Amino acid sequence: MEHSESIANLAAALSTFQANVPSVPFDGTNAFLKNRYATLKAMIETARPVLAENGLSVSQIVVSYDGQIGVETVLMHNSGEWISNTAILPPGEEKGKSGAQVAGSTITYLRRYSYAAILGLYADEDTDGNGPQQNTKQGTQKPPQGNRTAPAPQRPYTPEQLRAGIAKRIAGKPLDGVTEDAARKLAITWKNITGQDKSIRHNTCVSIINRTVDSFKSLTVSEAEALTDWLNGNHPMAREESKLVAAELAAIEEERRSQGTLGEYFSEAPNSADAIAAIRGA
User: Cα 272 to the chain's mean position, in Å?
Assistant: First the structure.
């Protein structure tokens, strides 16, 4: 974070702003985790009048660095004081969209989180479905001591969070196989995320749904729906998350290889996906 030489006036104004800003309405829904969140539009419309009352303003500037897309968010006070921070992500790819359209989605994603962070706004719902945080003036209702839950995870999701989210979506859903058309579309989307290497694509899928998959046609309807929601929810983040899963698999593979136990799994499994599944279950 960068800032002006002094931020005394800004800090006092920001404190007053946070005490008076209303709760931001949760007008969006995460297709993967099904939790609600506040869109960028809702945050700006809620914050803008209270910012003005306190001599504050926010400016967000698109930046690029070493082929990556970023947003610099600057919070300014009418005294001339300011603070700023920059968030950067690698550009993604999305079939059917131009590079400019994908970049626009990434920029909006970065703007939303950066805007909420610099103003201290509550922009995401807990995974247990609790309502949004109440206005400070009205008081905050705390959950019972024995029933506290962690806030919704922020993307990129860790491999553990991905598996938990997929498992939650799959539970109690249909077991019928997906249609050939749905399997084809899922395969194309997955290819755009994980690249040309079929083994990486296959092993990543196996790790996330935690079972061996011969082809996308062998997925159940619920598995296919959960994977599609995750992949389409935010392509730049899905790309980062697939890298995390691939790195986890590589670490498992390297650990087994260093212990001299990897060979027995590969000798028993017909392909690398089965080998990884065997390793994870060991």
Answer: 28
Which residue type sits at 72? Answer: E
Model confidence pLDDT, tens digit, residues 112-156 = 889 999 998 876 654 433 333 333 344 444 444 444 445 556 677
* Order of all β-strands in the sheet with 56-65: 2-3, 82-89, 68-77, 56-65
Domains of the chain, start order: 2-128 (3.30.160), 159-281 (no CATH)
CA distances from 24 to 40, 46, 135, 201 (A): 10, 6, 9, 39
pLDDT number for residue 178:
83
- Helix/strand/coil percentages in the chain, nearest 5: 55, 15, 35
Which residues make beta-bridge pairs with 72? 61, 86
Q: How is residue 229 written in tokens?
A: 């929601």
What would the two tokens of residue 121 be?
């706004």
Q: Is 210 left (phi over 0), alpha (psi -120 to 50) or beta?
A: left
Q: Please list, in sequence order, all residues whose beta carbon lies within 8 angstroms of the beta carbon of residue 197, skipping any fewer than 6 positions away.
A: none
3-state DSSP call for residue 72? strand
Q: What is the rounded CA–CA span in Å between residue 121 and residue 126?
A: 14
Tokens of 219: 């997925």
CA–CA gap between residue 102 and residue 236 (Å, rounded): 8
- Tell me the per-residue pLDDT of 130-142, one tens digit each, with 9 for 90 and over: 333 333 344 444 4
- What values do phi and psi take at 88, rounded to 5? -130, 140
Helix, strand or coil for residue 278?
helix
User: Whose structure tokens read 């909006």?
Assistant: 108
